[in-house]
Structures are given as structure tokens and as C-alpha cells.
Amino acid sequence: MATSWQKDIKEKARAPLKGNLEAEVIILGGGITGTVSAYLLANEGKRVILLEAETFDKKGATPDTTAFITHVIDTALPELVKLFGREKAKGVWEAGKQAVEKIEDIVKKEKIDCEFTRVPQYEYALSKGELKEIKEEVKLAKEFGFEAELRTGAPLLFAGHNLTQKLKQVNIFVPSEGIEPPSLP
Ligand SMILES: Cc1cc2nc3c(=O)[nH]c(=O)nc-3n(C[C@H](O)[C@H](O)[C@H](O)COP(=O)(O)OP(=O)(O)OC[C@H]3O[C@@H](n4cnc5c(N)ncnc54)[C@H](O)[C@@H]3O)c2cc1C
Predict the structure, then answer these.
(1) How many domains does the chain contain in total?
(2) Ligand 1 — pocket residues by CB below 6 A?
(3) H-run or E-run covering 140
């Protein structure tokens, strides 16, 4: 399935630069990091040049993203605490929350038709070990002031998954602000 980067961007590449240009900021790389940085800096009044080595649709990770955005990053909160300490770990989640809010603001301001939708997030435990990790994550998330809830007996939200029988059916529920938990049977 083609992503928006692959099918919607009409101008995939521009001609190489001719001659010299002047700018206050030069950004190398037209993935999501480069384009958002260029956008934010240009909005602050900076003269920005964004240079992309390839074409917008083919290179880098951005064209393949599923565009799922969350402050719950792949490294679990307890692991973040072990690596960087409590304050920095909390800061990672807070930075993520602010980033999601910034994206939502930009979508509204620029009237971007990208179906931005806030949804609840679930993490399922497949083993006793994972259950222990999720319990620790919920505890820490609450201590840091984030909304998180441990539920037991919740069914899989995607019907017919062949792992259903193996699942401990315990999950962390991380609601986005303003989202009510769906009622589970
Ligand atoms: C299949 C897949 C699914 C994903 N799903 C998600 C998701 O759901 N949610 C999520 O948050 N993340 C997801 N990710 C990760 C996410 O896509 C990346 O973290 C993100 O796109 C990285 O963006 P970037 O701009 O930093 O890097 P890139 O998108 O890699 O952009 C870097 C750009 O720099 C250019 N470049 C490199 N060197 C130079 C140079 N010297 N001069 C000029 N240009 C240069 C490259 O050509 C490239 O276009 C997914 C990734 C993949 C592969």
C-alpha cells in the first residue's frame, strides 16, 4: 500500500541548485524531521533552505511510515529510567506528548486533510515477563502524572487474531486527553 508520501506528493524532486543561495539555516534531509524543522523555523521568520539528496518518495524512512504517533515510545518507561534516570525518562514522554500536540496544531492550522484522529492505545502482555514489564510501566506512568490504567480480562480489539488463546489479556490503556476508554465486555 502506498503512503501519502509516495502517492500524494506531486513534485517528487526538484532540479539541482544553480549558483549560490544564502540562508540563515540549511537543513539536510527532506524526511519528516527535516521538513517539520524547516516548517517551524520558516514560521519563526528564518530563511531556510531544505536540501534533499534523493526524491521525497523513495529514500529514507519517512515514505514508509504508518504515521502512528504516540508518546509511548518503543523503549519501555522502566528501561528509560534505567538508562537516563527518572527526570529524563519523564521528559522523553512529555516531549512526545508535546510533539503530538504540535502535530495536531499544525494539522488544524494548515487544514491538512490527513484524517488525524486521537485514539486509545493498548499494550498487550503475551507472557508473565511482559505482564511484569507492563505493570512496572503503568506504575511509573502514573507516578509521572500520565494517564495509564492496567486492565485484566480485556479481549483483543482485533477479532480473529490467532494469538488470542495465548494472550494473558492484560493490557495497559493509555488514553489520549479527551478520549474516553471504550467499554469492553
Ligand atoms: C515501515 C515503517 C513504519 C514506520 N512506522 C512509524 C510509525 O507508525 N510511527 C512513527 O513515529 N515512526 C514510524 N516509523 C519510523 C519513522 O518513519 C522514522 O523515524 C522517521 O520517518 C525518520 O524521519 P527522518 O526525517 O529523521 O529520516 P528519513 O525519513 O530517513 O529522512 C532522511 C532524509 O535525508 C536524506 N539525506 C540523507 N543524507 C543526505 C544528505 N547528505 N544531503 C541531503 N539529504 C540527505 C535522505 O535521502 C532522506 O530523505 C516507521 C518506519 C518504517 C520504515
Answers:
(1) 2
(2) 28-34, 51-54, 59-62, 64-69
(3) helix 128-143
Tell the residue number behind the cell numbers 527535516, with chain if given: 34
Q: How far apart are CA 160 and CA 140, in angstroms?
A: 32
| pLDDT at residue 166, rounded to an integer | 45
Q: Which domain holds residue 93?
A: 77-174
23-49 per-position pLDDT tens digit = 999 999 988 999 999 999 999 999 999
96 and 160 co-located in one domain: yes
How many angstroms is it from 15 CA to the middle of ligand 1? 22
| pLDDT tens sequence across 13-22 | 778 888 899 9
Are 3 and 60 contacting, i.e. CB atoms less than 8 angstroms apart? no
Whether residues 92 and 56 share a domain: the answer is no
pTM above 0.85, yes or no: no
User: Is 120 contained in some domain?
Assistant: yes
- 29 lies in some domain: yes
